[in-house]
Structure formats: C-alpha cells, structure tokens
Amino acid sequence: MAKAQKINGVRGMNDILPADAPIWAEFEGVAQDVLAMYGYKQIRTPILEQTPLFKRGIGEVTDIVEKEMYCFTDSLNGEQLALRPENTAGVVRSVIEHNLCYNAPQRLWYFGPMFRHERPQRGRYRQFHQLGVEALGFGGPDVDVEQILMARRMFDELGILPLKLELNSLGNADERKAHREALIQYFESHQDILDEDAKRRLYTNPLRILDTKNPEMQAMVEAAPRLLDYWKDDSLAFLKRLEQMLSTAGVEYSINPRLVRGLDYYNHTVYEWVTDKLGAQATVCGGGRYDPLVEMLGGRATPGVGFAMGVERILEVMREMGYENNDPDTELYVMHSGGDSQLYAMNLGEIMRDAGYDVIVHAGSGSFKSQMKKADASGATFALICGEDETANHKVTVKRMFGEEGERFMQQETIALEDAIRFFVDIDDLEVEE
Ligand code: ATP
Ligand code: MG
After folding, report:
1. Does residue 431 surpass a pLDDT of 70?
2. What is residue 365's three-state secondary structure?
3. Residue ranges lining ligand 1, Cβ < 6 Å
4. How far apart are the CA of 227 and the centre of ligand 1, in A?
5. Which runs of consecutive H residues, i.e. helices, occur in 194-254?
6. pLDDT digit string (tens) for 220-240?
7. How remote is the CA of residue 281 from the centroid of ligand 2, in Å?
8. What value does the mean pLDDT of the chain take?
9. Which CATH code for domain 332-428?
10. Which ligand 1 atom sits nearest the alpha carbon of residue 272?
11. pLDDT digit string, tens, across residues 362-391
C-alpha cells in the first residue's frame, strides 16, 4: 500500500500533549478550589449555540461577531450554528431557559474551549480556553469585588502575582448615551484620521473606536471626550463604593479611562488583569458588569457580572515565572520475566493500586535491563522486580530509583511479598526530591 498522507490539526488549534497535562491540571485544581471557597457552582453548556444568540448577546458591531466567529449552516437541517467565541451568552441563555434565577441569585463558573477565527500568534489561538464566572441577580458592587478577590486569590495560588488591575466604569445607559453623542461629534470632526474599522463603527459602536490599536489614531483617541466626565451621582457612588471595597481588601488598581469592553450592554464596572510577561497579548482576564444582558436575551431583568480568564495566557505566565511540575507521574514500576511472573506482577500491581499507589506494570516482554530503563524514564520512585525466583518464593525485589544516601532500598533488596506490601502501606506518601 502506498504510504497514506498524514492529516494535520487545524491551524491555530493546539493539542495539549501529555507533557503539558500537569500544568493544566494545576490550573484547574487551583481554580476549582478557589471557586468553591466563594460558593460558585459549575455550569456546562454546549460548544455550539444558535448563531443569533451571539449576534445579540455579544453585539453585531464587535470584532468577535464581525470577523472572528465560526458560523455555519447545518447541512442536515439548515440551522444557523456557531462555535462559541465566549460563554457569557451561552450561560445566560441556559439560565433563562431553565429559569435558574427564579428563586435565588446564581454564582456560576465554566471552563472550556472557545473558538475565534483570529490570526494565530503567541497568546492568540483559534481554539483557546477560558475559565469564567457569572453572578446573576446581584446588583453589586460587592459581588464585582468578590470576583476580583477570587481572581486575585487564584493568581496568588498559581504564583503569577503581581498583575496589574486596570479598572474603569462605563456608567449607566443614560450617561453612556450622552457620552456617545459627544464621541460621535468628536469623531465626525476627525473623519480624516479614522481608519476603515473606525468609520464603520462611527455610528454603531463609537465606544469601540477608543479601543483601537492603530498607532495613527492614538493621539486623536487620547483627546476624545471621556466617559468619566459624564458620570452622575449613581455611577460615582457605585464606583466609589467599589473602590472603597477594593482598598479595604488591599487590592491595588489603576483607573484606565480608555478601558472599554466594546459591548453595548456593559455598564458600571469593567476591568482587565494585565501581565508584563507576555508582550502584546498581555490581558489574562477581563471582566465587568452587564446588567441589561439578561433582558436583551429574553429573560426577566436580572443584573449580571462576570469575568473570563484566558487560560493559555495564564499558563504562559506560570511558565515564565518558573513553574515546574514536581509530582511523579508514576510511583511504582513493576517488572517481570513473563510467564507466571507476569501474572504475579499484574497481581502485585493491583494490590499496590488498592493501597493507593500509581503503578505501571511492565507490558509485553523485554530484558530486565530494558525494563529498568523504562522504569527510569517513567519517573517511578521504586522498581518492583518479579523474576522467576521471586515468583516461586512469594518474594519481590525492591529498588529505589532515586533518593538520599542511606534511605531504604537504595541498594536493591529481595524481601517477602508481605513485607514489601507492609512497607508501602506504612509509608503513605512518597516524598520525592528531584
Ligand atoms: P484581546 O484584546 O486580546 O483580543 P478580547 O477583548 O478579545 O482580548 P475577551 O473577549 O475579553 O478578550 O476574552 C477574555 C480573555 O480571553 C482575554 O483577556 C484573553 O486572555 C483570552 N483570549 C481572548 N481571545 C483569545 C485568543 N484568541 N487566544 C487566546 N486567548 C484569548
Ligand atoms: Mg479579541
């Protein structure tokens, strides 16, 4: 047969290989512990949703909906579907559909892949992962702060602090309307400097123009009318209380009046956690309040606030900060010489797993020398050797693969099976210094 051509993965969509699994597990473990500390419950929604959900839930005039969404028509029934580019819309859809907020407000979290058709580069992929939270039914600003503290606690436990917290308030709908009119007037008077994106957004989403990365527009944008000059009593009071709570909790932040999160329905709190370790893709988490969203998606008016973390970027910061995985993958490697000794070894493997150990029983055949190499490569702390003699006499040879001088089994020893089992049951933790 001619050699079949290989098929590669999709550009911008990464495999998470076994060597990377521990850092993902570390992140997920820390995140789940912290989420539980704050009473957040997991929700898992589908990766596919109806396209109109995102158009309405994110906004027609946003980067995501205009040019990053994977949309398709289901050829089997003509439905318009999209791979989720984010998960706030999906969570809110689910909450409305199942009436979750009927009796009580909800503190929810999710974790999973998101999809955006962007140009792949460091920190920017077409499939990436977000861990996010959404609190629905809380007016804030206390819950807004709770989420900031929760994120900070995760970052702390992951060892990636300090990060910069940039904060802004988008005010309420009236204030944004007044500001928006002033912005449109201002941009109209600078038509010649506006790029294509900005021109297109001038009347649909002028706020988003403030977020431009075009260097030629920076000076003009810097001098644009600032939303904070339009804040009235309520918004000022909301922001003041939020700042008071942050200060009390010892959270450092800076107000960035240019920080917007594009979407029309965001109000009051918006923020981003930013690292100086990653170059251009520096935002590791973005959050904010979206009080109008639930109603916009057909539910009863319910305030909401949440954040989404870019997990790949966070892992990258962890690596930059020197994260190393020190847990051995395997604790015991059981070797044998085939025949009855293989049966004996497999049985020993089950006994040790009953005792709570992670065990690899050598599969297939092979000399003890080659098995020893595999044991070494597995990272196991001990090799347990079941040769013909051991099998015939109910014994096992124990060899410590690494450790300190003077520790037991640094020199291999053949002992009774019962003694070996007792030894491993008694040491309940394999302390490993690598
Ligand atoms: P950016 O300005 O970097 O495009 P964004 O505003 O599109 O970010 P959000 O929609 O707020 O990002 O998503 C929250 C977080 O998810 C981001 O802060 C980032 O950490 C991460 N993220 C967003 N898009 C990607 C991507 N394509 N690849 C990897 N991570 C991403
Ligand atoms: Mg983006």
Report:
1. no
2. coil
3. 86, 116, 118, 123-125, 128, 130, 281, 283-286, 308, 310, 312-313
4. 24
5. 196-201, 206-209, 218-222, 233-248
6. 998 999 888 898 998 999 999
7. 10
8. 93
9. 3.40.50.800
10. 18
11. 999 999 999 999 999 999 999 999 999 999
